[in-house]
Amino acid sequence: INEADIATELNIGRTPINQAMHRLALEDLIVIMPRKGIFVKPLSYDELEHIIDCRTINECHAARRAAIHGDQADLARMREVLSTAAAFLKAGSVEGFLEADKAFHTALSQASGNDVLAGLLETLHDRAQRYWFVSLNSAEHMPRVQAEHEAIFAAIEAGDPESAERAMAAHIASLQSNLTGRF
């Protein structure tokens, strides 16, 4: 990545580009090697396994809590996101579906009633998004993700924490299964 080229292309100074690069490095998306350059961090199966591990622990707990603490406004938000995702799925829009996917997970984590957990999951989802994009580019995976989200939502709506937790675990395992062998 060339900071000067980006600054020229965006017609801004190098300072904000440099600050953005350091932020991306803090988020572990790029590697800054002094006197060698800036490089996009490649996807790795090891990182995916670590993300899956963290998501399984935290997001299954969030789904459980959402089934207990989610209110009608939370359910309406998740229902709306699922409807939006279905429209993107029908249109074949990977980018739109990816945004709806993230919005569903955000709505679910907010429904957990634990702002600290929701914040942790937001950071984790940001880090996982590159892997989600690779996974969702698989034609058969988008409809499966939609069905998995609907199963998670149904358990939350029914107020069934055990089923919500199991459905989330299955959803996360599906991502891992879909990505196995791609790295």
Helix-strand sequence: HHEEHHHHHH
Instruction: Write down how many β-strands occur, each being a DSSP E stretch of 2 or more residues.
Output: 2
User: How does the major sheet shape up?
Assistant: 2 strands, antiparallel
Mean pLDDT over the residues:
92
For the largest beta sheet, what order do the strands appear in spatially?
1-2
Give the N-terminus to C-terminus distance in angstroms. Answer: 22 Å
Q: Mind explaining what this structure looks like?
A:
By secondary structure, the chain is mainly alpha-helical. The chain is built from 8 helices and 2 strands; from the N terminus they run ααββαααααα. It has helices at 3-10, 14-26, 45-69, 72-91, 94-111, 115-136, 141-157, 161-179; strands at residues 30-33, 37-40. It has a two-stranded antiparallel ribbon. A hairpin with a 3-residue loop joins strand 1 and strand 2. Helix 3 (45-69) crosses helix 5 (94-111), helix 5 (94-111) runs parallel beside helix 7 and helix 7 (141-157) packs antiparallel against helix 8. The two termini are 22 Å apart. The mean pLDDT is 92.
